[in-house]
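Render this sequence as a predicted structure.
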Amino acid sequence: MTLRQRYLKWRQANSVADAVALMPKAFVVRLDANIEQRNPSATIALLAISLARSDRLEAILDEAGSAAVQEELLRRVRSVLRENDYVAVASSDEVWVALTQLSSPAIADLAATNLIRTLEKPIPDCDPVVTVRPVIGVALCGHIGGSATRMLKAALGAQQEARAANRRYCVAATGTEIGELSRTVMVALQSALAQNRLSLVYQPKVDLQTGQVAGVEALVRWPADARSGWTPTLLVDTAEKYGMIGELTRFVLHTALREYVTVLAAAGVGILWVNLSASMLNEPGLPALLQQAANVWGVGCDQIGLEVTESTLLNDAELSIKTLHALAKLGFSLAIDDFGTGYSSLLYLRRFPLVELKIDKLFVEHMASSVVDAQIVRAVIDLAHNFKLKVVAEGAEDEATLAILRQMGCDQVQGYVYSRPLPADELARWVNRRTAPD
C-alpha cells in the first residue's frame, strides 16, 4: 500500500482537523498556560521548524499526495516527542513544537538534532520521492521570558539566523547566556582542539569514466569518546558560533596535509579537498594562511582543492569573488558544495573562478525513483558543463544511480556505493586494492 493509499484510508477513519495537530491560536493559548503553570526549576522550549522543500509539494503532487506527505512529516515529528509535548501546523512549510517540563535545556538541543535526522530522511512511498531540508529555531522560556508570543518571535528569529549561517538549527539566547548543552559542547571542542584529539576521515571522489580516484574530501570528526548523537555538523556549528572556526580550520588543514604527505599521496588519491566556512572566506588573510600551510608540508597549491557552500558564496558575493580569485591565482582548485540547495545565480557562477560543482545528495539519493530529482540532476550537469565545470554527484549509494549519472555525463561520484569516509591509512589500503592488478 502506497503512502497516498494509507493516507486516504486514514482520512476515512479520522477527523483531519482534530487528529493532525493544534491550530496555531490554540497552540499559543496552551503554551501560555504551560508557561504560567511552569515549575521554576523546569524549562519549556518552542521549536519553529521550517520544512524547506515542502513548498514544492503542491506543484509536484496531487492534493491527496501532498496531504499524505504532510501527515507523514507530522508523524515523524510526533515520533520524537514525549507524551506531554504538542505540535501545531502554522503553514504548509512551518511546524511549531512545544517541549514542556524539560529537566534541562540540553534536551531541547537534542530534540532539534533528532528532529532534523528524522525529517530529512526521504519519503520514498511517493511519486516522485519527496525530501525536505528542515531548519529549526529554538527558544527557551528561561532565556526569553514568560510569553508564548515572545518565545515564538525568538524562535522564528533563531530560525532565520540558522538559515543565514547555513546551519541546521540555532538556539535563541540573550547576552552571554548559553544553553547547557551548548556550553558542554563548546568546552568539549576547546578541550579536543587543545589536546589535538579531533580526527579526520576522507571520502574518495571517483571518476565515472576511468574508475580512478580523482580526489578525496577531508572531513573532521569528534573524538571516539564523544557523546552519542554529537554530529560533525554540531562540531562545525559550535566552532563557528563561539569563535573557534579559525583554529579548527588550521587543525583540519595541517592534519590533512600531514596525512596527505605521509599516507595518501603515495596511494595516488588525486587532489586533497578541504571545506571552508563562511567566516573563514571573509578573512582577508586566508590566501596567505593557505599558501603558508601548503609550503610547510611541501604540497603544491595545485594539489589542494577548497570547497565552499553555495549559500556561503552568495552571502557576500563581491567579497567572495575577490577572495576566490586570489586563491585561484595561487593555484588552488575551487568548488561549490551542495549546489542546488541555495539560490543560484548564473551571473555569480560565471564570475567565480570555479573548477567544479558538487550536486547535493538531497537530489542524488533517490533520482533512480524520482523523475523530478533526476531532472534536477540532469539540469545541473548540463549547466555546469556549459560553464566548462566538472560535476561531482554526492550521495550515490547503488549501481542504478551510477548508471544514470554515467548516462547523464556526470564526471565524478562521491558516495557509499564506492566507500564511506575512512581514516587515511584505511583509505590508502582501499585505493591500493582498487588499483592492484588482478
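Summary. The longest helix spans residues 245-267. The CA atoms of residues 148 and 388 lie 52 Å apart.
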